[in-house]
């Protein structure tokens, strides 16, 4: 059973502050640490989130358990599907990561963060079984149209390069 945090009171857990009613209020500490340490890391250094325990070591199993609990309680939240996908990608469980990113996009097909994360995985994975430059371009272009964030442009350039479109990648 995953640890859960009560939503009725202000919570300080693992250094993360959570206010009642916030999206993270009912999630466990692995989820909170995952969100608290949100950065570009993983897959060759670039997954939108990184899971770190209090001592700096990865605690992927706890984060996955917490995401599982969050998905059970709120299955229509794309952020929890994307969060679990990020952890799976960090572990090299690419099929499971892709499946969860796609679930997030079925819930919200305009979720730029999920589009970008899936595009990055498809463009940059070392496992050729999952690499798909053309699909990565499609997803990254949608992410850029929705949100002009530099990270989304980086992902689009990586997708172009993966697909052999080096001139486009340089732009």
Could you walk me through the main structural features you see in this protein, from its secondary elements to its overall organization?
The protein is mainly alpha-helical. It has eight helices and two strands; from the N terminus they run E-E-H-H-H-H-H-H-H-H. The protein has a two-stranded antiparallel sheet with strand order 1-2. A hairpin with a 2-residue loop joins strand 1 and strand 2 (16-18). Helix 5 packs parallel to helix 7 (150-162) and helix 6 runs antiparallel to helix 7 (150-162). The protein starts with 10 loop residues before the first strand and ends with a helix. The relative contact order is 0.11.
Question: Any chance you could write out the topology, listing elements then pairs?
Answer:
Blueprint: E1 11-13, E2 16-18, H1 29-36, H2 60-73, H3 78-90, H4 94-107, H5 112-124, H6 133-146, H7 150-162, H8 166-170
Antiparallel strand pairs: 1-2
């Amino acid at each position: 059973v995953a640890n859960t945090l009560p939503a009725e009171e202000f919570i300080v857990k693992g250094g993360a502050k959570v206010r009642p009613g916030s999206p993270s209020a009912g999630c466990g500490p692995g989820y909170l640490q995952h969100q608290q340490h949100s950065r570009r890391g993983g897959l060759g250094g670039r997954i939108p989130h990184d899971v770190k325990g209090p001592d700096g070591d990865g605690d992927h199993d706890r984060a996955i358990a917490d995401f599982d609990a969050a998905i059970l309680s709120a299955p229509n939240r794309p952020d929890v599907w994307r969060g679990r996908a990020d952890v799976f990608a960090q572990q090299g469980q690419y099929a499971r990561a892709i499946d969860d990113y796609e679930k997030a996009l079925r819930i919200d097909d305009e979720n730029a963060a999920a589009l970008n994360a899936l595009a990055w995985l498809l463009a940059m994975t070392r496992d050729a079984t999952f690499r798909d430059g053309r699909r990565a371009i499609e997803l990254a272009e949608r992410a850029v149209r929705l949100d002009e964030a530099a990270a989304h442009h980086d992902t689009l350039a990586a997708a172009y390069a993966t697909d052999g479109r080096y001139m486009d990648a340089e732009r």
